[in-house]
Amino acid sequence: MALYSSISPGALVLMLLIFPALINNLAAKHGHTTTIYHHHHHHQQHHHNRLPEKAVLNNRLQRAYIAFQAWKRVIYSDPKNFTSNWDGPNVCNYSGVYCAPYPNNTKIQVVAGIDLNHWDLAGFLPDEIGLLSDLALIHLNSNRFCGILPQSLSNLTSLYELDLSNNRFVGPFPSVVLSLPSLKYLDLRYNEFEGKVPSELFNKNLDAIFVNNNHLTSVLPPNFGTAPASVLVFANNKFGGCLPPSIANLANTLEELLLINTSIKGCLPQEVGFLYKLKVLDVSYNKIVGPIPYSIAGLAHLEVLNLGHNMMTGVVPDGVCCLPNLSNFTFSYNYFCEEEGICRNLTSKGIMFDDRRNCLPDKPQQRSKKECDAVDQHPVDCSQNCSDSLH
Ligand SMILES: *[C@@H]1O[C@H](CO)[C@@H](O)[C@H](O)[C@H]1NC(C)=O
Ligand SMILES: *[C@@H]1O[C@H](CO)[C@@H](O)[C@H](O)[C@H]1NC(C)=O
Ligand SMILES: *[C@@H]1O[C@H](CO)[C@@H](O)[C@H](O)[C@H]1NC(C)=O
Ligand SMILES: *[C@@H]1O[C@H](CO)[C@@H](O)[C@H](O)[C@H]1NC(C)=O
Ligand SMILES: *[C@@H]1O[C@H](CO)[C@@H](O)[C@H](O)[C@H]1NC(C)=O
Ligand SMILES: *[C@@H]1O[C@H](CO)[C@@H](O)[C@H](O)[C@H]1NC(C)=O
Ligand SMILES: *[C@@H]1O[C@H](CO)[C@@H](O)[C@H](O)[C@H]1NC(C)=O
Ligand SMILES: *[C@@H]1O[C@H](CO)[C@@H](O)[C@H](O)[C@H]1NC(C)=O
Ligand SMILES: *[C@@H]1O[C@H](CO)[C@@H](O)[C@H](O)[C@H]1NC(C)=O
């Protein structure tokens, strides 16, 4: 299923672009230069770690060294041998590790990024990951990391981007991410997180939230916070409930809202039309009833609108089909009974569309009269609250 985000997760280019800005925000701590032998820690050092006698590392890189060695010990499969050079004290030379000057003392380097995308590693995240406290980016997309996220992640106070997508993380929604003060980009998609999405997630200062393709079950919070998010992707979870009118709280920032296949019921609230920056709205494969809120005709930036595979009724309003930048409008597999004005001929406007399997007279591939009549006899009252509008 296509998820159209304009943000390409795991893009190292992005990481390099945002670095100069991030560096200014890196947590303020002194970096002392000492030798690695001065470090006392309780982890068993393995003999294969070659430590040149005069290897000079600041204590931040020393902690990173401990973290990477601990991590390497719990990586059980590395089919492409990417971590084979995770040896010795020069952590900045390790594959997938990116160092940057420490802001308060630009003479020293700290580990600012990890990018292991598509390495196919199997293992888990050790508690020692909390020692990498200067990290701004973690990209672990497409590996086989499993287990739960260590609580020590909360130590990563500079973490800006966390991409754990396409792994095998399990357990409840990892609330440790809520404690990361600098986090802007959260990508947990394609894992096996389950249960409730904490409503606190919507009070965080996040720009993009991807939680699609997990086993999350909670309803969307009745009171969306004011997360300044531009992208929310919740597809393929079992949320249930209705899209709350408080979605309007995200109006000043939200550009993409993807709620595909999330078991959402009830009518679309008029407030969807308050999300004036929306470019992509996809609520397909749900149990939405009732009409298209006319307010959608006010979404001037809308490019992609997908209402397909619901139980919506009524008229497809001309105002929506007239939207200047609309390029793809899918409303197939509903019970719409009329296409108003230009909606009858979207081809003439160069808009990709799909209106199959509705109740549209004179259009090909529509539902049977029997199917359409059955729905006609149970009008939907959207003025009732969410639970009442359900059948
Ligand atoms: C690091 O720099 C920041 C901002 O310049 C400052 O607020 C902070 O106190 C400094 N930290 C230390 C440990 O010197
Ligand atoms: C990885 O390293 C192991 C042992 O060092 C070796 O047997 C294997 O061929 C290497 N695999 C690749 C893909 O280089
Ligand atoms: C890091 O690796 C580069 C080449 O891969 C090498 O030239 C350099 O000496 C290494 N630095 C250290 C400190 O090992
Ligand atoms: C958190 O980071 C600090 C350094 O910034 C380090 O001293 C401490 O051990 C870390 N705590 C954990 C739990 O990793
Ligand atoms: C919807 O999501 C469920 C899991 O929640 C999945 O099993 C099903 O295949 C998805 N349906 C579609 C049409 O993608
Ligand atoms: C429509 O798209 C064009 C080209 O991408 C863009 O320049 C313009 O600002 C868009 N208009 C609106 C209202 O979003
Ligand atoms: C239009 O949207 C539908 C539904 O999301 C998608 O299947 C189709 O590929 C899109 N068409 C184009 C040309 O992007
Ligand atoms: C739709 O509009 C196009 C171009 O304006 C025209 O050629 C076509 O006949 C129209 N189709 C219908 C069904 O009216
Ligand atoms: C929902 O509607 C029922 C019956 O109409 C009513 O008793 C209930 O108070 C309403 N709940 C809310 C939250 O409006």
From TrEMBL:
Secretion signal span: 1-28
One Pfam family in the UniProt entry: LRR_8
InterPro entries per UniProt: Leu-rich_rpt (IPR001611), LRR_dom_sf (IPR032675), LRR_extensin-like_regulator (IPR051582)
Keywords: Cell wall, Glycoprotein, Hydroxylation, Repeat, Secreted, Signal
Predominant cellular place of this UniProt entry's protein: secreted
Repeat recorded as keyword: yes
Stated name of the protein: Cell wall hydroxyproline-rich glycoprotein
Subcellular location(s) of the protein: Secreted, Cell wall
PANTHER family in UniProt: EXTENSIN-LIKE PROTEIN, LEUCINE-RICH REPEAT EXTENSIN-LIKE PROTEIN 3-RELATED
